[in-house]
Amino acid sequence: MPARQRLFSGIQPTGVVHIGNYLGAIRNWVRLLESYECTYCIVDYHAMTIRYEPSEMQGRIQELAAVLIASGLTPDRCTLYAQSELPEHAELCWILTTIAGLGELERMTQFKDKSEQDRDNVNLGLLAYPVLQTADIILFKATAVPVGEDQLQHLELAREIVRRFNRKFGPVFPEPQAVTTQGARVLGLDGKAKMSKSLNNYIGLVETPAEIWDKLRPAVTDPQRVRRSDPGRPEICNIYALHRQFSAPDRIHLVERECRSAGIGCIDCKKLLAESLEVEIGPIRQRYQALRADQEQVIGSLRQGAERARAVAHQTMDEVRRAVGLRE
Ligand code: SF4
Known about the structure:
Elements: E1 6-11, H1 19-32, E2 37-42, H2 44-47, H3 54-71, E3 79-82, H4 88-97, H5 102-106, H6 109-117, H7 124-127, H8 129-138, E4 144-146, H9 152-169, E5 177-179, H10 209-216, H11 238-246, H12 249-260, H13 266-292, H14 295-324
Parallel strand pairs: 1-2, 2-3, 4-5
The structure holds iron/sulfur cluster (SF4).
Iron/sulfur cluster (SF4) binds at residues 221-222, 225, 232, 234, 237, 239-240, 255, 259, 264, 266, 269-270.
């Protein structure tokens, strides 16, 4: 059997994991375990490029690790670790900054957006963010990277940096390729903006059914459905978009039909969604709660992942240091 391709992806410890993160990344990461040798990284170095509270960082990392493991990213199925456990990420990033161009980094859409969002904190790390991402991927010589549309620009830059490195120092790295996944982007409960912690328009992945219902109940639906008897338009309703992600096909079909004919009210439709959500995320919450009660298990899993990742990173960095002339 041919060796499986190496796949790498990272997620920031932002404090809350919501169902937007789950649909956009985590659910796919679990699916990708079937076909790839997967390394998943909690990217705490990246998280330092925006304002954060240092005393909260470790708690966030452990919280996120518990959510990821509870979702199915267990140590027997993948390598999961915290980025700063391997300073090789930072070392390789530095080497790559010497071949990355200032102009190309300044042109990155994410850099421009984040610079706009916080004009008093436009730091060098924010500019070098895609260089660190490149280092993250190639430290493992990963050839597969699951990316959403918003990250395609960074992956293209990573590929360019790899080509440049190989031309200058010799063929050390394979060019990473994008893996197109079925990741879905859902709007927040306001029905307007992307689901996010900062906009407080999210459903937490491990929130209780009661907490979820408190948020779902007032969530925005089709604004044309003023009265219960008004027919609705599921195609513009975010609750229907969530049904499409979490409900079984017959329920999705029923919601669509009954919404258009005003056969179902929005509250009942949301109750059905809450049920569907519970079927998928209820078991994750239960495993998460068990892990939070046994924090040593989470810390042990991260340690085990870091050891496995370190072995690969050491090998790569030996090769890199020799290639760039820092070792005999
Ligand atoms: S019935 Fe459901 S899909 Fe239709 S508008 Fe209400 S919440 Fe949205």
